[in-house]
Amino acid sequence: MNRWQDKESLTALVKELVEIPSISTEPAEIAMAEHLYYTLNSLDYYKYNPSHLQLHPMPDGRKLLTAFVRNGPHEDTVILLSHFDVVNIEDYGDLKHLAFRPAELTEKIEQLPNLPDELMEDLENGQWLFGRGTMDMKAGVALHLSMIEQAAEGHFPGNILMVSVPDEEVNSAGMLAAIPALEQLKRQYSISYKACLNGEPAFTRYPGDKNHYLYTGTVGKLLPGFLCYGRETHVGEPFGGLNGNLMAAEMTRMLELNLDFCETLGDEAIPPPANLLQKDLKDHYSVQIPHAAVTLFNLLMMEKSFSEVNLQLLRLAKEAAKNVESFFYEKALAYSKLVPFDVKKPAITVFTFQELFEKALELHGQEEITRRENYILSTHPHLDDRDVTTMLVNDLASLCKQYAPMIVLFYAPPFYPAVSSREDSLIQKVSGDVIQFAESQFQITLKKQNYFAGLSDLSYVGLSYKQEELRPLLDNMPVYGERYHLPLNDMKELTMPVMNLGPMGRDAHKWTERLQLSSLLATQHMISYTISKLLES
Description:
By secondary structure, this protein is an alpha/beta fold. It contains 15 helices and 21 strands. It has helices at about 5-20, 30-40, 45-50, 100-110, 115-125, 135-150, 175-190, 245-255, 305-335, 355-380, 385-400, 425-440, 470-475, 490-495, 520-535, and strands at about 55, 65-70, 75-85, 130, 160-165, 190-200, 210-215, 215-220, 220, 225-230, 265, 270, 275-280, 290-300, 350, 405-410, 420, 445-450, 500, 505, 515. The strands form six sheets. The chain has a six-stranded mixed sheet with strand order 1-2-5-3-6-19, sandwiched between helices. Strands 9, 10, 13, 14, 15 and 16 form a six-stranded mixed sheet that branches. The chain has a three-stranded antiparallel sheet with strand order 4-21-20, sandwiched between helices. The longest helix has about 30 residues, at about 305-335. It starts with 6 loop residues before the first helix and ends with a helix. The mean pLDDT is about 95. GO terms for molecular function: hydrolase activity.
């Protein structure tokens, strides 16, 4: 049939998928799942095997797609994993109306003045397609559709199961919903999962990086937060209290881009922590200082234990507390020479959320704490998980005002476990074969990386931690077990070798996001070769 097996048809398919504005949590996410279903349903294989193509409803009304292709009596099956949601388009500014029209956007960008040299170089060679989702990851979805077409023609020595999910860019709710579906499909089709091959694009590791990567794992992610709870006062008497924003600013200064948190493995190094949210918690303007503030960070992991990271964050918070104490005291001392008053150095206490919870329990009892938690959770059912988490921690701190000023370390969802198959014999053999194939057939030097640093749903294909090792994280995540759940036992059951191989792109999550068209067909052949090697090994 060969609908998506050459560069022109693949490029057209990518454009078709990009034109569906499947922003996470917006209605077009559902439309995207249905579009993929009807696109695949046009293949003859699914006319004869309609039950092999399914849309699985999620509790929130969204859908994930699975497309199975059986080849003879084989049990061995390779999972092709992708996500079809994209991030929002606010960064496009006055080009927002073209964000999902890749051909027109590419033409428009070519006309813009004062572009960076690297961008100009890509525009001049005419082999790049711009638009939201071109790189992350509609091209990967298109390539997997072409693999389903190959599988339907009997190309592979085993079975293929394509899984494409929504919400990867927010909470990975799609992948978490896919885990029980995968277990159910394994029983339904009497198959075994040989490996999971993700199709995320190759991410640059540093500015100007032009390497094409193959990954044998994916990094983990924590979202540590610090509630900075000071003491209220009138702005006319600033030394009578302690500003939460001052404390949060010092936490951010110390943790932002802190290389002490960069794990290394061989020539790989994960990016340092980056702030994702910082704000005070006043809900209206007044001349009372904002005595409570919060700051949240993206923190990546490879092989450190949670206990180690938790202690490292606590040490940093205690150092930040000492810095704020000294700063405040020095300013108060200097001001006392202008307006005489007794200067006192503040003492800032550092707690984990669990420690603060135990203080509140001792002071107010479980019934009152539960009542307040239930009120917050029931009153804000549609509020972002990060905001609800902050509200719960702040409310608990308000019950323990006598311990203020304080900094409280907590964790918010989502949590992405680190996963790696760097010691798996199958993955090491196949990755070596694929690297050699790419070099000999296309003169592409694939560089193998142990961990994909861009975050991916591969994190939920297995669980490399014992549940007890997760306690420092889960015990300090206020919404865990209430609004946020992880199917830890199912994840453990699902464990299989993992790889990631996808197209070349640049500037994911930027208005200059783009896909390298010149390597699209080569990547297709590399993915097809990888699947064959996984199944025949």
